[in-house]
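Question (not urgent): is this output format expected?
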Amino acid sequence: MIETVAETGSTNADLAARLRAGEAVPEGHWLVADRQNAGRGRQGRVWSTGEGNFMGSTIVHLDGREPAPQSLALAVGLAVYEAVLSHMLVPARLELKWPNDLLLAGGKLAGILLERVGNAIIVGIGVNIAKTPVVMGQKIVSLGQFGPAPDRDSFARDLAASFAREVERWRSEGLPQLLARWTAAAHPEGTRLSVHVGEEGRIEGEFAGLAPDGALRLRLEDGSLQVIHAGDVSLIGGQG
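Got this back:
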């Protein structure tokens, strides 16, 4: 079910409030906003955008039989990737960036924010379909810059279907298959990355694939590998 509201602060915050109030929000239920005025990205960034773009959230309930919860972000990235790919009418480079961004021609097209409430994970997704928000210091793109923009509601249905498929595969196939598919859709190994890692500050190296648990592997200048479980990643020489 896709529930649509004209405007809200944050669809993630709305679903979190429902869960905390004891409402039984089932998997497969989506809350989609025409406008969102207090959306959030990673590390508390503001991500607010307007009509014509996709802004929505859904819920995945955990029962302890699935892979590590943090790996869900990779499955969600694949779901967004597949949904966007089905609506691309003009060839352009589409690729995933760890941990939860989708880039189109080097610019950020979509972002994902996962937040846990009890045994549920709220998954918020924003995709620039028709409009291109302005974000300081980042190259942001929309599908409308690369051909006719798809209808938001049609895209929402396709994304919901793609999301359901990928979550089921995440649960049934386990991490090795997920990591292989995610890596095939990501920027190639050897891509130069800059990663801001908490108190360590910013480090640079080459993308060396994913660790068995889905963490980022970065090959440093001295040839050693550093495994990163949380960080803010940018492509060196690119804008994503």
